[in-house]
Amino acid sequence: MKLYLGVDIGSSITKAVALEGKNIVGFTSIATTDPIAAASGAIGKLLAEHGYKLEDILRIAVTGGGARFLKVRELFGIPLTMVDEVEAIGLGGIALTGKRRALVVSMGTGTAMVVVEGYGGSIKHIGGTGVGGGTLLGLGRLLLNKHSVEALENLAEKGDPRRVDITVADIAGGPVGIVPGEATASNFGKVSDEARDEDIAAAIFNLVGQVVGVLAVFASKIYGMERDIVAVGKLTSSKLIVKAMKDVASIFDAEICFPNNGGYCTALGAAYKLAKELSL
Ligand SMILES: Nc1ncnc2c1ncn2[C@@H]1O[C@H](COP(=O)(O)OP(=O)(O)OP(=O)(O)O)[C@@H](O)[C@H]1O
Ligand SMILES: [Mg+2]
User: Fold this and answer.
1) Is residue 212 classed as helix, strand or coil in its secondary structure?
2) Is pLDDT at 280 greater than 70 in this prediction?
3) Which atom of ligand 1 is nearest to the CA of 29?
4) Are residues 216 and 103 in the same domain?
5) Of 35, 57, 143, 214, which alpha carbon lies 20 to 30 A from 249's?
6) Domain that holds residue 38
7) What ligand 1 atom has the least distance to the C-alpha of 15?
8) Ligand at shortest distance from the CA of 141
9) Is residue 254 located within the same domain as residue 271?
C-alpha cells in the first residue's frame, strides 16, 4: 500500500486525509493543539482507525494556518511537503465537485474565499470575512453558555429567529424590490423580552449563515460564478448554516453547492497536490 497523506492544521481542528492513487481511503480529525502534536496525533489516529502502518505512507503534505508554525521537516521519519493553504482549498474544492471553475468558500473558524479556474490551473485568494465558525461558537458561549456547535444547534432547532431578527416585512409590510418579506432586514434588531434562548440560538446561526451567504453570492457575481459557489469547511456540517445560506442564494438567483466531506476539503487538496507532483 502506498499512501499520500494530507494534513490540514486548522485554527480549531486538524484534519488528515489518506489517498491511495486518486482514491480517498481514510480521513480523521482531532482538536488543534501544538502544531507538531496535532499533526502527529491526526496521523497516528488515521493509521490506527484504518489499520495502516507507518511504512504505508509515501509522503505527507501539511497545510493550514498551523503548518506555518511547524518547525520540523519530517514526522515519523517521513518528509513533509508544505502546501499553501489557498492552493489546497482551491484544489480540494475542484476535487470534491469535479468542477472546472468555482468560488470555493472555506467556512472554518474564519471564512476565506478562493476563485479557481481551469481545473486548478489558476487559484486566487479574493478575501473573506472574520465572521465564521469561531463567531458562532463565541456568541453561543457568551450569550447562551453553550460550548459546542451540536448543543447550540439542538437549541436553535427549537427556536424562532423572527423573535430576534427584524424581517423586511416587519419594516415594509411585504417584499422590497427583489428581497422577499421574510428576508432579514436587521440581524438581532428585534431582541425583545420575549426572545427565548432557543430563539437567540437560531438567530446566531442566521447571522453567520446570512453574512457568509450574502458575501459569497456577491463575490460570485463579480466572477460570473453564481452557479459555481462551493461551500466547504467544518461549519458546512451544520444544517441550519446550510439552510440560511441556501435561502440567501435563492433570493439573489445563485446556487451554493455543499459537497460531501467538505470539512476535509483543505486536507484533501494538499494530498492531491502531492500526489499530482510526485506522479509526474
Ligand atoms: N459538529 C459540528 N458541526 C458543524 N460545525 C462544527 C462542528 N464542530 C465544529 N464546527 C464548526 O467548525 C468550525 C471549525 O471549522 P474547520 O475545522 O473547517 O476550521 P479550521 O480549519 O480549524 O479553521 P480555519 O480554516 O479558519 O483556520 C468551528 O469554529 C465550529 O464553529
Ligand atoms: Mg481550515
Assistant:
1) helix
2) no
3) 17
4) yes
5) 143
6) 3-89+264-279
7) 17
8) 1
9) no
140 pocket-lining for ligand 1 (C-beta < 6 Å) = no
What is the grid cell recorded at 167?
Answer: 424581517
Which of 9, 149, 268 should be mutated for ligand 1, with most atoms under 8 A from CB? 149
> How many angstroms separate the CA atoms of 161 and 198, rounded?
8
User: Confidence band (pLDDT; 50, 70, 90) for 87?
Assistant: very high
CATH number at 273 reads: 3.30.420.40
* Overall number of domains in the chain: 2
For 99-138, the pLDDT digits (tens) are 999 999 999 999 999 999 999 999 999 999 999 999 999 9
Residues around ligand 2, an ion, CB closer than 5 A: 10, 108
Burial (CB < 10 A; 0-12, 13-18, 19+), residue 134, is middle
Residue 179 Cα to ligand 1 middle (Å): 30
Which triple of cell numbers denotes residue 252? 439573489
Beta carbon of 13 within 6 Å of any ligand 1 atom:
yes
Strand partners, 27: 17
- Is residue 65 within 6 Å of ligand 1 at its C-beta? yes
pTM of the predicted structure, to 2 decimals: 0.96
Q: What is the predicted pLDDT for the residue at 278?
A: 81
Residue with the three cell numbers 480529525: 29
Q: Give the contacts of 8 (CB within 8 A, at least 6 positions apart).
A: 14, 15, 16, 62, 63, 64, 67, 85, 88, 264, 266, 267, 270
For residues 275 and 207, membership in a common domain is answered with no
pLDDT in tens, 188-208: 999 988 899 999 999 999 999
The CB of 66 under 6 Å from ligand 1? The reply is no
**Atom 28 (ligand 1) nearest CA:** 133
Domain shared by 102 and 20, yes or no: no
Residue 205, number of CB atoms within 10 A of its CB: 27
| 236 and 269 housed in the same domain | no
Q: Is the CB of 151 under 6 A from ligand 1?
A: no
Q: Are residues 119 and 230 in the same domain?
A: yes
